[in-house]
Amino acid sequence: MTDHATVLPPFHWSGSRRPTQLGAGLALYGVSIALMLAAGLGVDSWDVFHQGLAERFGLSFGWVVNGVSLFVLLAWIPLRQRPGVGTVANALVVGVVADAALAVLPQPRWLLWQMMTLVTGIAVNALATGLYIGAGFGPGPRDGLMTGLSTRTGRSIRLVRTLIELVVLSSGWALGGPVGLGTLVYAVSIGHLTQLSITRFSISEART
Fold first, then answer.
1. Closest by alpha carbon to 37, among 84, 132, 105?
2. For residues 141 and 79, what is the distance between their CA atoms, to the nearest angstrom?
3. For the chain, which terminus, N or C, has the lower number of CB atoms within 10 Å?
4. Domain-located, residue 101
5. Residue 25 confidence (pLDDT)
6. Does residue 158 lie in a domain region?
7. Cβ proximity of 87 and 141 under 8 Å
8. Does residue 9 form part of some domain?
9. What is the reported pTM?
10. In total, how many domains does the chain have?
11. Which pLDDT tens digit goes with each residue over 148-171?
């Protein structure tokens, strides 16, 4: 999914802690989505799409996240991608946590507060991605779509991810999803932050 240049030494978990790392990563991922939505400055491409669908059809944001996750999983079949425990857990947990967090998070009323909430959401998102992918239980539906397309087409992860982001973002915008400063900040920062996080928290087979 990302380049594998080592920047930080891997974080050492024992094998018995892998499920804990997975659960913490997925829960934090849901919280990060809620933080970026609460900031009101724009969210990542997939959440522009999710929010657009939620507003268009009058559905809960969390239920839309889960529904899209399950639909994307169906696209894995022709790509011959195999889901893992982490894949299924991602599809079931993240949306529920995002809904719960949105219900309790305050709405920032000043620009500085909004920006702090956005930056926190992006940082937590990168941390969460490193935790759940690093646990080694399988990628989430969207990450698996990206890696599957890359493998089947022979195109680079960078190119495939960019194309997916553009298609999803344009679809979400057409549905009325929110596009703003946060969308741009996320796009230019999340790759590097996620690479650092995955490098830090990946668990090698030798340690499991």
1. 105
2. 12
3. C
4. yes
5. 95
6. yes
7. yes
8. no
9. 0.74
10. 1
11. 787 788 887 667 777 887 888 889
Distances (CA, A) of 20 to 13, 16, 131, 189: 10, 8, 9, 27
Q: Give the ranges where the chain is alpha helix by DSSP (H).
A: 18-39, 45-57, 61-79, 85-104, 111-134, 141-153, 157-174, 181-201
- Which residues form the domain of 63? 16-207
Give CA–CA dist 87/126, Å, rounded: 17
Tokens of 53: 């669908």
Phi, psi of 82 (to 5 degrees): -110, 120
Q: Please give the span between the terminal C-alpha atoms of the chain, in angstroms, as a whole number.
A: 22
Residue 157 is inside which H or E element, if any?
helix 157-174
CA dihedral 14, 16, 20, 25 (to 10 degrees): 50
**Closest of 161, 164, 170, 165 to residue 195, by C-alpha:** 161
Tens digits of residue pLDDT in 94-121: 889 999 999 999 989 899 999 999 999 9
Average pLDDT, whole number, for the chain?
82
Residue 170 lies in a domain: yes
Residue type, 114: Q
User: Which structure tokens are listed for 148?
Assistant: 């599957």
